[in-house]
Amino acid sequence: MSRKNQTLGEFIIENQTSFKYSSGELSRLINSIRLAAKVVNHEVNKAGLVDIIGAAGDTNIQGEDQQKLDVYANEKFIQTLTKRNIVCGIASEEEDDFISINSQDENNQNKYIVLIDPLDGSSNIDVNVSVGTIFSVYRRVTPVGTPVTLADFLQKGSQQVAAGYVVYGTSTMLVYTTGDGVNGFTLNPAIGSFYLSHPDMQFPEDGNIYSVNEGNYIHFPQGIKNYIKYCQQEEEDRPYTSRYIGSLVSDFHRNMIKGGIYLYPQSSKNPNGKLRLLYECNPMAFLAEQANGKSSDGFTRTMDVVPTELHQRVPFVCGSKNMVEKCEEFMRKAEQ
Ligand code: AHG
Ligand code: MN
Ligand code: MN
Q: What is the pLDDT of residues 183-219, one digit of tens each?
């Protein structure tokens, strides 16, 4: 029985048996993420103090400049999951290819793979605005004890066994699901423990916040333009409020608590949008659905999209159920 003030460690132990196929492996995985999150949190908190901010000089596979904290967070999460021999494979937004762990070791009986966006919202690092980490967990589809293959990573989002995020905000929170609702834990920095502060999180069915980079308006498809105009119309419950942080994790977190919709649509510049299906959209879609929200590309449920490549991008509309459905209605109408 979960109760407020429970530590994340206690919660994981108490809920271990409620996971399908529970063997303690998934619990150890969440524990490792908790540990890495604390280490990264410590570094993020110091970002303004030490000379760690700014571009590291590298460019990732998607042609974006990497900031130093991206590199740091990437290393910490990979190290923690690798050294503790928790998973059999990792794919990261910051790595060109997936990593196979102990692929030569037949004793590696680990069955889970992790996909991770180690630092989300990286353009916000050097301006002291909330950033996050997003993770997504699957059971491998290839036999245990063999090296992982691309097929283990290119699974539909509906196959996820766990997903979550850490938001390094005014407070640091870890929010996750194992398919049995969404729970949020807040870090007490004095003690270094996460406490259950937001049990059973739910998106309000309706909301009045829309979150979109409206600077790209001119490039959006007609359905999205019409939906944005709808959000701005004078009606009983409208115009809605516009809130856009530019860190998906933070925008999603606020919308889940207050009720709202997040949009990163396709555009004439980016025909598939910007966000990555495997590292960003699927984990957020799993959380949204587990919290009574909804997620799609405007037409198709996010978690039903069949991935064809590791760094694939998809248009993304996610949030309060009625708002997402209204947006989909505008998309369909504009197609006719
Ligand atoms: P990342 O820092 O991992 O590359 O992700 C940034 C993403 C997402 O967090 C955010 O919502 C979006 O990019 C912002 O994009 P724009 O600056 O184009 O609005
Ligand atoms: Mn991101
Ligand atoms: Mn990132």
A: 999 999 999 999 999 999 999 999 999 999 999 999 9
Which domains can be identified in the chain, with CATH numbers?
A: 8-198 (3.30.540.10), 209-335 (3.40.190.80)
Q: Which among 58, 74, 133, 264 is the best mutation to test ligand 1's pocket, defined by most ligand atoms within 8 Å of the CB? A: 264
Q: Is 213 in the pocket of ligand 1 (CB under 6 A)?
A: yes
Residue-wise pLDDT for 242-256, tens only, equals: 999 999 999 999 999
Q: Is the CB of 152 under 6 A from ligand 1?
A: no
Nearest to 213 by CA among 174, 168, 245: 245
Q: Is the CB of 149 under 6 A from ligand 1?
A: no
Please tell me the predicted confidence (pLDDT) of residue 20. Answer: 60
**Can you list the pairs that 294-301 forms with residues at least 24 positions away whose Cβ atoms lie under 8 Å?**
294/318, 294/319, 294/320, 294/321, 294/324, 294/325, 295/319, 295/324, 296/324, 296/328, 297/273, 298/221, 298/223, 298/224, 298/265, 298/327, 298/328, 298/331, 299/328, 299/331, 299/332
| pLDDT at residue 315 greater than cutoff 90 | yes
Is pLDDT of 321 > 90? yes
